[in-house]
Design brief:
The protein folds into three domains: 1-199, no CATH class; 200-363, no CATH class; 437-507, no CATH class. It is 53% helix and 8% strand. It has 18 helices and nine strands. The protein has helices spanning 3-13, 52-55, 65-93, 105-116, 124-148, 153-162, 169-181, 186-199, 215-228, 245-262, 266-271, 274-285, 292-320, 322-329, 334-341, 347-361, 395-422, 465-481; strands at 201-205, 208-211, 383-385, 392-394, 442-448, 451-456, 486-490, 496-501, 504-507. Strand 7 (486-490) and strand 8 (496-501) form a beta hairpin. Mean pLDDT is 77; it is low at 14-61, 232-242, 365-391 and 418-427.
């Protein structure tokens, strides 16, 4: 059994891979007669779009070289189709825009024609069909890359983590392949980091994860994936232990793990600029980050420091109290921590979930008081008979009636004067932003004391983090010109997604 077959089987055991897509125990059907890509016309949530008959034992050794080329062609097209569905889902759900899907008809035609070729791979007929398919898939890849450039790492994280139904491993592999083949940028590297970590880990509850494989196994599986992504080649001369940039990068990630696991508090990590140092370290690795040994150590680092962050927050909550942590940190570190751990980790959500868990665990203990049984006698209220002898009047009833009348009069008086009291309630005055640059992304604005509050439009989510910070700076200049010192930008749900003051500029992941 090959290393790739072992990876597929282990993913199946973890219920992370569908049986209908990658199989290892079925005889191969004639590829030329199979329909390689399913005609997807239903929900975009169906990511297992490779037809089971077309899969044809993807991981088995092909009968000949021609069959190997055919399988790689089918894998390339199906991978692009899955990426198309994921990007469309992100644009629709998180960026609130209508996806402009690529017309893949020419790609399918080119693939069909390529699969019909029976000539040897060195023939002109095969070369022409292959070149035509390559041109069409390149057009598709280029279109997807342009769309992906407008999608932030945080949006990819949120979609993949919250997708219903859960993304299959095939979809995650397709995304990983797409980002690995894309031209390098820090955003692309961050997305690749997240997707690979999600592919090789599993949630275990309480915001913690576990790795599916050990470091050595992960390294072998990453190499196998790379070898099955036709457009990649591995520089085996560099991939050696000891005295190389790769070994230095691996040692760096191991150092971060040790530092996090020996830290005694979350405040200790914050004070040492721990999470920002991880970010800078990953950025500094650049394309070296893609080396199998480096990405394997990075995935382990992501999972372990993410778990450690959860543990430290829980410990600090027990020692210093939830309110103290919330007041001190708030949303300030959510973005950088989520990037460092390649997982959305929100401090206030962790505190809220921990509090709810504590409340659920506390079983009310009602004291049972045993009181001896006794006979209770009720004294009858005295009755005063009227002089006429026709009606008996209870004096307590008279007292109750007087109290009710007095209460009714008070309620009436209050309702008559309520409007006057309401006039004294201070309402945050609106701010006129017409004609300013703020109208690009702010729907309405108001001010309270020295803070400008702006309610954002959906276009805010389409901005990159740098563009969001630039807009925040413009909003701060607008506020300061009108005598205000701070800016607080809110999404449609009333959650803070941007904050600016003379000494601070923060963009937060929306809740």
């Amino acid at each position: 059994m090959s290393v790739f077959e072992e990876l597929i089987d282990e993913l199946k055991e973890e219920n992370l891979l569908e049986e209908t897509v990658f199989t290892t125990n079925r005889s191969s059907a004639p590829v030329a007669q199979a329909e390689p890509v399913a005609d997807v016309s239903g929900s975009d949530d169906d990511f297992d779009i490779l037809d089971s008959e077309a899969a044809d034992d993807f991981v088995e050794k092909p009968a000949d070289e021609l069959e190997a080329y055919r399988r790689r062609a089918m894998d390339e097209v199906s991978s692009l189709q899955m990426v198309e569905h994921v990007l469309s889902g992100i644009e629709r759900e998180h960026m609130k825009m209508s996806p402009q899907a690529f017309d893949d008809l020419d790609v399918k035609k080119a693939l069909h024609k390529y699969l019909q070729v029976t000539s040897p791979i060195n023939s002109s007929e095969h070369a022409e069909a292959e070149q035509n398919l390559f041109r069409e898939t390149e057009k598709w890849f280029s279109a997807l890359s342009k769309r992906d450039a407008n999608i932030s790492v945080a949006n990819v994280r949120r979609f993949c983590e919250n997708s219903k139904p859960v993304l299959s491993s095939q979809a995650l592999m397709a995304l990983a392949r797409f980002y690995r083949n894309s031209p390098y940028s820090e955003a692309v590297r961050g997305k690749f980091d997240f997707v690979m970590t999600k592919l090789f880990s599993r949630e275990v509850g309480e915001e913690k994860r576990k790795l599916l494989f050990g470091r050595v196994e992960m390294l072998a599986h990453v190499k196998t994936l790379y070898s099955n992504w036709a457009s990649l080649s591995i520089d085996t001369d560099q991939d050696k232990d000891g005295g190389s940039p790769i070994a230095d990068a691996v040692a760096g990630f191991e150092g971060f793990v040790r530092e996090s696991e020996t830290a005694e508090s979350f405040d200790q990590l914050v004070s040492s600029d721990f999470f920002n140092r991880i970010r800078l370290f990953k950025e500094g690795a650049a394309e070296l980050f893609y080396e199998p040994a480096v990405i394997a150590s990075a995935m382990e680092c992501n999972v372990r420091i993410g778990n450690r962050f959860v543990e430290l927050v829980q410990n600090d909550r027990m020692t210093t109290g939830k309110d103290s942590i919330e007041e001190k940190y708030g949303y300030s570190y959510d973005t950088i921590i989520s990037g460092a751990a390649s997982k959305t980790l929100l401090l206030l959500d962790l505190l809220r979930e921990a509090r709810e868990a504590d409340e659920a665990a506390e079983t009310p203990k009602e004291a049972v008081r045993e009181t001896p049984a006794k006979t209770v006698s009720f004294e009858r209220a005295p009755v005063v008979e009227s002089r006429r002898g026709l009606v008996a009047v209870n004096k307590w009833l008279i007292v109750a009636t007087i109290l009710v009348l007095a209460l009714s009069a008070g309620v009436y008086f209050w309702s008559e004067n309520a409007s006057t009291a309401e006039d004294g309630v201070e309402v945050a005055p609106a701010v006129n932003i017409a004609g300013s640059e703020l109208t690009q992304h702010v729907r309405e604005a108001s001010t309270s004391s020295e803070t400008l509050y702006g309610v954002l439009q959906p276009t805010w989510d389409a901005l990159s983090e740098d563009e969001q910070k630039q807009f925040l700076a413009k909003a701060l200049n607008f506020a300061r010109a009108r005598g205000m010192k701070r800016v607080n930008l809110l999404n449609s749900r009333g959650r803070t997604v941007g904050y600016a003051s003379p000494d601070r500029l923060e963009v937060f992941a929306p809740q």
